[in-house]
Specification:
This protein has eleven helices and eight strands. With 282 residues, it is an alpha/beta fold.
């Protein structure tokens, strides 16, 4: 683990794996420690992965002001990491909720981004909504066997506003292409690795300015890969396609059989697709 001091004096941790050109990786959750990203399905075989623990998660310190958990404040943490690493430009990967953080960084510092990878990104930053019907439609792709039928029923109650904590637990299999040992381990680790208070603050009032971010990204000329899971509902492929279309050089990839953690569902396919993009922009 490595540590640096960001703009407000908070000490942030990052982890380095692999050899090759650096790829800065931002974890989702929102506000989950970066450990769950691991080697991103073997991507570390050809890249030096630099996984940032966002403030108040993993090895990073709790900030003095909890307002700074808000996504817009954390853009400065990503820039502080770039400066600490001494990189003129960074290739940047954001997963899930951190897809919004990565987009906001690209909007604020377009000249500092090489290529941008958005893995199953939640598009809060650009104001693209995912409707309950779209989410439930993705879940229903699994219908016809357990544990998915139970999960779909529970998700329906959640989307209708009547779900319970037990219902949320029942939906876990929907976030993975296979409900196997690796998926269950990832899910079990999530609660301990996520800072729930920081997660709520991440999307607090004022965190996002979608019109301004969209306008900036429409002028962002660097290559962008939006990688969606075929079975994911956050975002479903149709929403991922809408997001990719915002960028002048946006590329959409839909990984077959994958859900919200595509490197767990098919590690070789995920790593090969991301590496190809990082190497060629296509």
């Amino acid at each position: 683990m490595h540590v640096f001091t960001t703009y407000d004096g908070t000490e942030l941790a990052y982890h380095v794996q692999g050899e090759g050109e650096p790829l800065v990786c931002l974890p989702g959750g929102a506000m989950r420690a970066s450990r769950y990203l691991g080697e991103l399905g073997g991507l570390a075989a050809g890249r030096r992965l630099i996984r940032l623990d966002l403030r108040g998660t993993g090895g990073s310190a709790v900030p003095a002001d909890e307002v700074t958990y808000r996504a817009d404040h954390q853009v400065a943490d990503v820039e502080a990491l770039r400066l600490h690493l001494g990189l003129e430009r960074v290739d940047l990967l954001g997963h899930s909720a951190a897809g919004s953080l990565a987009m906001m960084y690209a909007a604020a510092h377009p000249e500092r981004v090489g290529r941008l990878v958005l893995v199953t990104p939640v598009p809060w930053a650009v104001g693209i909504d995912i409707t309950p019907e779209q989410r439930l439609g993705a879940a229903r792709l699994r219908a016809g066997s357990e544990p998915y039928d139970t999960a779909i029923e529970a998700y329906g109650r959640i989307l209708a506003g009547t779900g319970t904590a037990e219902d949320w637990a029942r939906t876990a299999p929907l976030f993975y292409g296979r409900w196997d040992e690796a998926a269950r381990a990832n899910q079990a680790a999530g609660a301990a690795e996520r800072n729930d208070g920081a997660s709520r603050a991440f999307t607090g009032e004022g965190a996002f300015d979608p019109p301004a971010t969209r306008a900036a990204l429409e002028r962002f000329t660097r290559e962008v890969l939006v990688l969606a899971g075929e079975l994911d509902g956050s975002p479903p492929p149709a929403v991922a396609a809408e997001l990719a279309a915002l960028f002048p050089a946006g590329v959409l990839a839909v990984q077959a059989g994958a859900a919200h953690f595509p490197w767990l569902d098919d590690a070789p396919a995920f790593a090969a697709r991301v590496e190809r993009f990082l190497a060629t922009g296509a």
